[in-house]
Design brief:
- The protein contains 20 helices and eight strands.
- By secondary structure, it is of the alpha/beta class.
- It has helices at 3-16, 24-40, 45-61, 70-85, 112-127, 141-154, 166-179, 197-210, 225-238, 255-264, 285-293, 298-308, 311-322, 328-340, 344-349, 367-376, 380-384, 391-401, 405-422, 430-438, and strands at 100-106, 131-136, 158-159, 184-189, 214-220, 242-246, 268-272, 280-282.
- Strands 3-2-4-1-5-6-7-8 form an eight-stranded mixed beta sheet, with helices on both faces.
- Helix content is 56%, strand content 9%.
- It is elongated.
- The chain folds into three domains: 3-85, Four Helix Bundle (Hemerythrin (Met), subunit A), CATH 1.20.120; 100-288, P-loop containing nucleotide triphosphate hydrolases (Rossmann fold, 3-Layer(aba) Sandwich); 298-438, Orthogonal Bundle (434 Repressor (Amino-terminal Domain)), CATH 1.10.260.30.
- The protein binds guanosine-5'-triphosphate (GTP) and magnesium ion.
- Magnesium ion (MG) is lined by residues 112-113, 137, 143, 188, 191.
- Residues 106, 108-114, 137, 143, 191, 246-247, 249-250, 272-275 line the site of guanosine-5'-triphosphate.
Amino acid sequence: MFDELSGKLENIFKKLKGQHRLSEDNIKESLREVRIALLEADVNYVVVKDFIRRVKDKVVGEKVYDKITPGQQIIKFIHDELVTVLGGEVSEVKFTGNPTIIMLVGLQGSGKTTHCAKIATFLRKRYKKSPLMVAADVYRPAAIDQLKTLGKQLGIPVYSEDSKNVSIIAQNALNFAKENKNNVILLDTAGRLHIDEQMMQELIDLKNTVNPTEILFVADSMIGQDAVTTAKEFNDQLNFDGVILTKMDGDSRGGAALSIREITGKPIKFVGVGEKLDELEMFHPDRLAQRILGMGDVLTLVERAQENMDEKEAERLAKKLQKEDFTFEDFLSQIKQIKRMGSIKSMLKMMPGIGSKLDQIDIDEKAFTKIEAIIYSMTKKERNRPSLLNGSRKLRIAKGCGRSVQEINQLMTQFQQMNGMMRHIRKIGFDKLAKGMFGKGMPQNRPFK
Ligand SMILES: Nc1nc2c(ncn2[C@@H]2O[C@H](COP(=O)(O)OP(=O)(O)OP(=O)(O)O)[C@@H](O)[C@H]2O)c(=O)[nH]1
Ligand SMILES: [Mg+2]
């Protein structure tokens, strides 16, 4: 969904790579491009303008940290600001009413009925609630049938009646729920093509009658800028509590998420990611921000590396490499350090420029385990003096770890290549180490397949 935007931002930040100082000029240029990218992703221009101003204010006043590059620092600011725009924290469902009444409103076809069912099943599963769905869409008989069908499919009761007065229906539904011990009521209201006064009045009446715990505005993320106008109108009239952003699985440019949140000030609570009834997610601002940036969480990567790398051990290995007496024993120790940082794929995902491309790459997480198995089958002497490994020793090792001699040879080659390559590395910082581990010449994608 945000592929286009994240691709653009990746390019912008590439240009900043290698710069050691942020001048007013290069910030200006990259922010200009961020602005264009956001506008092209259909984010409302007022939101974009504000956003850029806030990021700029922060970046200009700040000193550049030593541990991260200026590019990474800008990403961090933009990321943080995006998280703020998207609402900061996850917004939980409120269950204050007894029963809790959730009223869904929105334009025609936005996904109200579908999400009424999705949320009902979600609340039942996650919070062990006993929901009741209410057909408060009285204009189309088909709408009632649609809700009933969904209810049947999920085994969730649906309350409906022939009356054309939704306030009366809702009142009766409330009594029905009390009798049947349903502690959450979901009101599925009629959609409207455009905002019209009569229907809006009906929603206001309904709101006044049942005093819902939450009114959720259902917004189709595909309609871009229009969603903002509609959201504003609904919010002015109904003062809704939150937003469900639907059809995020589609070809949406996604700007609606940022804009609606910023313009209405109301949190996005749920995201619809498909037609199926379990395709619903709670909305996580930080995850979406990371996805928008497509840059991965550079800072987490740096932090994790710092936390997990035993600096003294890294230095010792670096010294050995420089002296060219790096052994299999050291190799084992290095693998252990890498493994402590988490899965290889999750680490790579956090590196700029890699995240979006990672899906096509097949990384064999077990490669290290195989390497370890081979090394463990060597005697201590062999581990410390790899040159000892002749044909018969290799055969014995192969038998010991259940791999072929060919695989042992492969490991030897990789080991030698690494030794050669690492000779040039003066100090093992995480970046260099990672490059060594994942760049050419090292046990990369599928060494033992
Ligand atoms: N791909 C996708 N389709 C969705 C999603 N949510 C709803 N739809 C589809 O959108 C169409 C309209 O959904 P409804 O739930 O009927 O919309 P509504 O708001 O109740 O429509 P009205 O009652 O006519 O106002 C249906 O075909 C749904 O399957 C979603 O998150 N992803
Ligand atoms: Mg409907």
